[in-house]
Amino acid sequence: MTYITKPKLHHPKLPVNALGFTHRDYEGSVSTLCAGCGHDSISAAIIQACFEIDLPPHRLAKLSGIGCSSKTPTYFLGQSHGFNTVHGRMPSVLTGANLANRDLIYMGVSGDGDSASIGLGQFAHCIRRGVNMVYIVENNGVYGLTKGQFSATADKGSKSKKGVANPDSPMDLVSLALIAGASFVGRSFSGDKRQLVELIKAAIGHQGSAFLDVISPCIAFNNHAGSTKSFDYVREHNEAANALEFLEGRQEITIDHDPGTTVNVTQHDGSVLRLRKLAEDHDPTDRTSVMNFIQRHNARGEIVTGLLYVEPDSEDLHHRLGVTKRPLNSLSDAELCPGSGALQKINEGLR
Amino acid sequence: MSAGTETLEQRPAPDKRKSGGGHSGDAAGMPPTDISNPAYFHKVVDCQWACPAHTPVPEYIRLIAAGRYTEAYMVNWKSNVLPGILGRTCDRPCEPACRRGRVEEEPVAICRLKRVAADNKSDISALLPPKPAKKNGKRIALIGAGPAALTVVRDLAPLGYELVVYDADKKGGGMIRSQIPRFRLPEEVIDEEVGYILDRGFVETRFGTRIDSMKQLLSENYDAVFVGSGAPRGRDLELPGRKEAAKNIHIGIDWLSNVSFEHIDKIGKRVIVLGGGNTAMDCCRTSRRLGGDDVKVIVRSGFDEMKASPWEKEDAMHEGIPIFNFLVPKEFTHKNGKLTGVTFEKVVAKQDDKGRRQLVPSGEPDQHFECDDVLIAVGQENAFPWIERDCGIEFDKWNMPKVNETTFQSTNPKVFFGGDAAFGPKNIIWAVAHGHDAAVSIDKFCNGEDVSKRPPPMTNLVSQKMGIHEWSYDNDISNELRHKVPMRDQKIALKDIRAEVELGFDQKLGYAETQRCLNCDVQTVFSAPLCIECDACMDICPVDCISFTPNAPEPDLRQMLSAPADNLTQDLYVSVPLKTSRVLVKDEDVCLHCGLCAERCPTGAWDMQKFLLEITHATEARCSRA
Question: Inter-chain contact B603–A4, Cβ cutoff 8 Å?
């Protein structure tokens, strides 16, 4: 880790966003992760994305579980709400927070251990319920904090740092999220910020459970030859399904130059996802075909990235439950506790 | 490379990265930076690059921070010869160049830190070069004992030269002693530092001797002659009334020199100083101390166009001296042979057809200022009436000697020039730089070598890594703003012309100021083969100066970076192509040299290495060959 605090001095010509902030105003404290960790690049992408969409930092709640990945919320958006929860239990705490205050933007940051092992059930159910959130898994295929054992997402046959091959099948969180009913599914790579920043922006604008699987090489334990989560391997096998450009609702949508290959998807909040098709056999709005697409490319040893699936007219948990449109903390005592008469009425209705 | 990576490159770039051209593998991209050329890293050390004598500034600032004042003084002494004097009077070309001034409001107070080293040093006599045991058989005459000639003496004396120094004044120092007022520079400091030099070997001083004939001097069979006679003639203003009121109209530099040598100790109550340079500032502040209650500075052009350093203007105004601008003197008014005032024409600055700035009459009525004395400080000139035009030294159409800008040799190979005598009025630090170069030439000339072959500088590049995240320099820089130098109470300061106005930083304040230095000499050195393109350096960089990008021609590349590189005077550090065919580009402009890129680099592709460059002076050039 770095001992000094990052100097406050910044580039004199740094761009400012609509709120008058520079991207440096979205930083957190200096990372204590290993030098070169992919997770730090993801934090930088989150900072850039929040800066670009003019997000007021206090509007974001960041929640995490346990692990290297789950330490990272400390390293971005120091002015936002944060909750470092129990191992694998971030989805439940996030769901609760979301139910209590639907006005905040929820970002769950987790890892392959936190979400694909101990928290697998929590992960699947949170997605299934359509909680309105961005769920980011910083996926490096190893347990970095305990010195590099294979995690549940490590590919079968991939080699550990000591040269031992992994005998078990991997858990593919992207496929799992699709099966569980996620309405926004993407995969990216910590070493490709251009793609990642746009995906994060689009995911924040999405109404419903948005899942991002971000391959993030572990420099200390999983960046060697034989690993399938190393910088070199991912760069060589990266197959982008599309190129995404996130356009906020107020931006003017210009005419497409290439209508045959570009699709505009308008989201609930008016934002537009402009997708330039790169893979012939990919239709991002057809869940079944996307699942096939992923398996097909997976069998060829390719890692598909980009915005893989999106359901523009998705509904979130609050809509499904029909609960109040206002955060609980803005309700009066009388509204929150309508008295025994109201309770009796409800009970009567259930008889 | 697989098809997959190529698809990544086809993705549209976000707006800020868009540019006219530049795809990976573009043949017209910038070539990799050659860091083996010492000029590259030297230029990154802005202060040292801007200093005419190329003093290694960050090196001595770190020594001051460590409380090693004597060593800090010696780093200066070796490079700029007169640290105590320059620490009070230097024109500080280093400070406008200082990188701190580009990331924050003001540069590091480099000049005043130099004084901290001088004020706090202990006895340096043991650290001075040893006196030569025997003469080397060559005799050199030096005309003038100002900063240029003193530097030549300093560099040549240890080599055994017999040096004969002439000066019309009774003591050495030249304009340092005669023109700089004592309230800015105490005489003890001059005596001390001039003393170190004149005591270095076979130096003979012939002070109080004015040279009236170069021919005569050349006939005395010196092996070489160095002319460091300065720019001794103050410009006059030939206006109506000049002759009639001559008794109360003085030429600034002559008047200052008369004050310094105590021939003059008072002036009228109302004083007008004409001119906007540093001499004018010295004149007005000196007047305030010799009885001038109502002292004004009046300049032809605008306040912002004045030649005086901003801090000298501030100091003058702080002493209650107003500066009036856009007033062109027209006439000295007088009554019964006594000066009564000066009439000025009011002007405005306009651009003519060719875009040149010109002063034109505003049409308003002339303005008259009453006064008892006028000091004219409108510039200085060289004067060589004592050099016969037939002694082999050619002069140009401006009546200046033809002097080679590198070797300082005149058309008479035996005669060398330096300081203001060479290329007109500059300042002390330039004179010192000239002296170093002239000394190299004189030494080569006396040894029958080609003077045009210059010794290369000594350079050294050493890693500062001590541990995982430990460096042998303090990379945790201070966020404090520039500290003000404590001043003497004005009531006392204005009463005594010998009372130094600036008290200098004490050790505590000096330490605080050293912590503002960014250590620009600790270079970020990049090794492309080690880089895995993890982006860690780019993400951590507090000033967004690191980018990984497809290569492109420089103008395009400058706009494709994390933050635009609009300062064209600062270089881009470009790597050879990396694995993904992109290049690493670092904009040197506002790099804080904090080392975070190297701390966050997992493979050691970045390293912080201290670059030390020392100009090779005559002494070292000769000794290293012996």
Answer: no
Chain B nearest C-alpha distance from A263 (Å): 15
| Of the listed ranges A284-288, B231-235, B507-511, the one predicted with least confidence | B231-235
What does the alpha-carbon distance between residue B592 and residue A11 come to, in Å, rounded to a whole number? 10
Does B337 touch chain A if contact means CB atoms closer than 8 Å? no
A69, A138 contact by CB (below 8 A):
yes
Please answer yes or no on whether A191 and B13 come within 8 Å at the CB atom.
no
Handedness of CA B501, B502, B507, B512 (dihedral sign): positive
Residue B255 lies in a domain: yes
Is the distance from CB of A226 to CB of A220 less than 8 angstroms?
Answer: no
Q: Does the CB of B467 have a partner CB in chain A at under 8 Å? A: no
Beta strands, E only, B528-621: 546-549, 572-574, 583-587, 606-614
- Do the Cβ atoms of A227 and B532 come closer than 8 Å? no
How would residue B233 be classed by pLDDT, with cut points 50, 70 and 90?
confident
For the sheet with B522-526, list strands across it. B458-463, B606-614, B522-526
Same domain, B358 and B254: yes
E strand or H helix that includes residue A52: helix A38-52
Structure tokens at B444: 């080569």
Q: Is there a single domain that holds both residue B386 and residue B311?
A: no
Q: Which of residues 95-154 of B touch A (CB under 8 A)?
A: 102-104
Q: Is residue A234 a contact partner of residue B580, using CB atoms and an 8 Å limit? A: no
**A137-162 tens-digit pLDDT:** 999 999 999 999 999 999 999 999 99
Domains and CATH numbers, chain A: 23-321 (3.40.50.970)
**Tokens, residue B313:** 């203007």
Task: Report the distance separating Cα A190 and Cα B216, nearest Å.
Answer: 80
Kindly report the backbone phi and psi dihedral angles of residue B403, in degrees, each rounded to the nearest multiple of 5, phi listed first.
-125, 135
User: Does residue B527 belong to any structural domain of this protein?
Assistant: no
> Residue B535 is nearest to which of A31, A193, A236, comparing CB atoms?
A193
Residue B175's H or E segment, with its range, is: helix B175-178
Cα dihedral B335→B336→B339→B341 (10° resolution): -10
Radius of gyration from C-alpha coordinates of chain A: 21
* pLDDT value of position A1: 59
Q: How far apart are CA B534 and CA B537, in angstroms?
A: 8
The answer to whether the CB atoms of A36 and B536 lie below 8 A apart is: yes
Q: At what angle do helices B57-65 and B507-514 cross, to 10 degrees?
A: 130
User: What are the structure tokens assigned to B276, written together?
Assistant: 């906007």
For helices A173-180 and A120-128, the axis angle rounded to 10 degrees is 40
Spatial neighbors of B365 by CB under 8 A, at least 6 apart, are B346
- What confidence score (pLDDT) does residue B387 get? 95
Measure the CA–CA gap between A185 and B253, rounded to whole angstroms: 80
Amino acid at B91: D
- Which helix (H) or strand (E) is B203 found in, with range? strand B203-207
Asked if residue B268 is part of any domain, the answer here is yes
Angle at B85 between CA B81 and CA B88, to 5 degrees: 135
Count of domains forming chain B: 2
CA neighbor of B275 nearest in space, from B242, B301, B249, B295: B301
pTM exceeding 0.80:
yes
* Amino acid of residue B322: P
What is d(CA A246, CA A263) in angstroms, rounded to the nearest whole number? 12
* Residue type (1 letter), B321: I
- What domain range includes position B198? 128-232+382-446
Residues B329 and B425 in one domain: no
Q: Does B578 touch chain A (CB under 8 A)?
A: no
User: Checking phi first, is residue A263 left (phi over 0); if not, alpha (psi -120 to 50) or beta?
Assistant: beta
Q: At what angle do helices B187-198 and B147-156 cross, to 10 degrees?
A: 30
ipTM score: 0.91
Q: What is the CATH number of the domain that holds B183?
A: 3.50.50.60
What DSSP character marks residue B13?
Answer: P
Does B78 reside within a domain? no
